[in-house]
Every structure is written in structure tokens, then in C-alpha cells.
Amino acid sequence: MKFNVTTKILIGLILGVFVGLLFTSAPDAAKTYIKPFGDLFLNLIKMIIVPLVLSSLVVGAASTGDVRKLGRIGAKTMAYYLLTTAFAVTLGLILGNILDPGMGMTLPQDAKVEVKQAPSVVETLLNIVPTNPVKAMAEANMLQIIVFAIFLGIAITFIGEKGKPVLNFFDSLAEISYKIVGIIMEYAPIGVFALIVPVVAANGPSVLLPLLKVIITVYLGCALHAALVYSSLVSIFARISPIRFFRGAAPAILMAFTTSSSSATLPVSMEVTEKNLGVPKSIGSFVLPLGATINMDGTALYQGVSALFVAQVFGINLSLSQQLVIILTATLASIGTAGVPGAGLIMLTMVLQSVGLPMEGIALIAGIDRILDMARTSINVTGDIAGSVVVAATEKELNRT
User: What are phi and psi of 315, to 5 degrees?
Assistant: First the structure.
């Protein structure tokens, strides 16, 4: 029997969970002997991210042939990302109020966590424009790469025929990058298996039980957000059944769940949107890299649940106005902190500060952050893919066949 890549990845994920449970008594062995195979897979993915994003965005921006059309696509993309993020954090707050994940828990006295300082709005806006594009690519600074690539694509459009040789170069580079992604995906099932084993081994069931309610709340919220928001959007705008959408997006969703990285999943996301869901490269290569950097629906939902969790642990009642502040802060922070390492905890710091909640509450969340990160990254990536489908449909460029 021949399995497709999605099935192989799923098998690798399930086997990884079972093997990880066997290694709960020896997590260091799993980390020493199995994790390197997963790290190799991540390194292969990271190797191709920068050339893939740069080339595909340049081609995507230049292929529109119309700067006004590019602006229209950009406006639709930003509106979609902001609205779905606001809905996600609202859903997180609703579930947090209903399920009360923090009730009956106490914060350890010695709980400490180091959280990096979030950048200011002005710093964020200035930092997205690279002073040295080569340095931005060397450091894999995705926001700066995106800005440079968009400028490059627009300039190629403006100069017309003289820009064709450069466009042809990036088009060839993009095709080569897609081929490399296909080769790497053959190794994906092994990489997924090797990544999930040490996570399960280190966070076995006994460790997760005290915080199981928080995990269930976040995972339930992510499932509801996907079922309510993304299913509705692809059905209404693209006339695609939710079953077909999620089946087509499955390889990227599984990859996101395992790697907990939107950037690492980006090559797979670009492949499935074009081949499985009919999104043209000119749109997918613009919407998806942008989404991997600024769209954080799953992370915003996690902010809502986590903020209420911390408030409940400390016996603090949040008013309706304070919860509205959380919605606004989490929505805007999703853009400002997306390119920063540890973005989830940085966003949570900003959200807790906005309503005066104790920073010490982050310590509890940090303990299970890796488990929560798997679910929220899956939703972040699913949102990016749904966004590309919706934008392509509104531009009447979606290939439904």
C-alpha cells in the first residue's frame, strides 16, 4: 500500500506520541538519540526559507503587473488578518469565562520566568525596513525580507521590460526552491517523529495533569475557531467545502503542529495552497509569507485564555472593559511582536500589563507553553492558508478545479 505525504506525516506523529510515552522515564535519551533527526529536518526547512520567501514574494509582487492591484490584495489581506485575530482573542476570552481554567489553582512562590522586553510601536515600524537587506537575509529577519522583496517586485513592475531578466531569475529561483521543498518533504515523516518524541517524553501525562484544563481550553478554542471562522470564510467567499479545505491544508497543519513554527511550515503552506486548493502563485506568494509573519490567530486566542487564567489564579475579576482592552491589545500586538523570538510570551506580557495583571502568572503558562504552542501555531498556519484562498476568490483567480 502506498501512502501519501499527509498520511505518512500523521503516522509519524502518532508513532512519535507512543514512543515518547515509552521514554517518559528517560527523556534525556530521547533528546540525545532521537531529537537530532528532528533537528536535521528543521535545519533543512530553515535552509530554504529565505530563498523561498524572497523569490516567491518578488515574483508575486511583480507578477500582478499592476501596483494598484497589489495594494488592493494587501488591503484585503491585512483586513482579513486583523478581523480574524480579533475574533480569535474574543473566543479565547469567552471560553475562559465559561470554563474557568484557573479556578482551584495556586501560583508557586518561587515561580520565575525571564521574558524579553516587547519593542515599542515606533521601534517595530522602523525595524521592518532593512538598512542592509543582505544582513536581513543572513539573520532570517522575515519582516525585513518581506519589505525588501515587495519593493523589489514593485520596482520590477514599474520599469517593465528592463526588469524582465531579474524577474526571470527570481522566477527560476522560486521554482528551484519549490523542488527543494519537495525533496525535503520526503524526509518529513521521520523528522516529525523525531521532533514529537522528546516533547512527549519531557512533558508526560503526570506533568500535564495539573494544567490540563488550560490545555483543553486552548485546544478547544483552536478547534472552534477553525470550525466556525475558517470553514465559514472558505464556504462563503470561495465556495469550497470545509472538508475539502482542511483535507487540502492537512500537510501544512500537521507540520505546524509538530514544529510549532509558522516560518518552518511556510514552504509546505505554499505548496498545498497552490496544488491542493487552487491559489495562484501570484497571490499565495504574497499572502502566505505576510501571514507567517503577522497573522497570529491561534496565539491571540491563547492570550485571551491565558489572561483569564492568570486573573483567576490570583483571584482577580476582570471587568468587561478590561476584557475589551485585552482584545485590542492582543490584536495589535500580533503584528508588532510576530517577528520576535518568544513572541507568544512577549504578547502575553503586553496583554497582562495592559490590564494590570501580575507578571508572575506567566511562569505557569511558560511551563506548558510548548504544548500550547503546537495548537496555536496550527491555527496560525490554517488562518494563513484560509486567507490566501479567500483573497484569491475575491480577486476571481481561484482555480476550483
Answer: 70, 35
Q: Domain spanning 5-394 has what CATH number? A: 1.10.3860.10
**How far does CA 120 lie from the centroid of its chain?**
22
In this predicted structure, the answer to whether residue 93 has a pLDDT above a threshold of 50 is: yes
Q: Considering only residues 350 and 257, tell me which one the structure prediction assigns the higher pLDDT.
A: 257
Q: Report which DSSP code applies to 226.
A: I
Alpha-carbon distance 141 to 308, whole Å?
32
C-alpha cell recorded at residue 188: 518529513
Query: What's the longest Cα–Cα distance across the chain?
Result: 68
Q: What is the pLDDT of residue 388?
A: 95
Measuring CA to CA, how many Å separate 277 from each of 9, 176, 367, 382, 386?
Answer: 19, 21, 37, 13, 10
The helix/strand count (H/E) of the chain reads as 20, 0
**The 3-state secondary structure of 76-96, one letter per residue:** HHHHHHHHHHHHHHHHHHHHH
pLDDT over threshold 50, residue 109: no
Q: In a 3-state reduction of DSSP, which class is residue 203? A: coil
Predicted confidence at residue 248, as pLDDT, reads 94
Pair 288, 266: CB distance under 8 Å: yes
Name the grid cell of 240.
469550497
115: helix, coil or strand?
Answer: coil
Distance CA 48, CA 236 (A): 35
Instruction: Please state, in angstroms and rounded to a whole number, the distance separating the CA atoms of residues 119 and 40.
Output: 32
Are the beta carbons of 213 and 67 closer than 8 angstroms? no
Residue 179 burial (CB count, 10 A): 11
Asked if 9 contacts 254 with a C-beta cutoff of 8 angstroms, the reply is yes
Going 86 to 87 to 89 to 93, the CA torsion angle's sign is: positive
87/229 Cα distance (integer angstroms):
8
Tell me the DSSP string of 125-190: HHHTS-S-HHHHHHTT-HHHHHHHHHHHHHHHHHHGGGGHHHHHHHHHHHHHHHHHHHHHHTTHHH
Alpha carbon distance 210, 315 (integer Å): 18
Which three three-digit cell numbers place residue 167? 524577474
Say what the pLDDT of residue 337 is. Answer: 53
- 141-159 confidence digits (pLDDT tens): 777 887 898 899 889 988 8
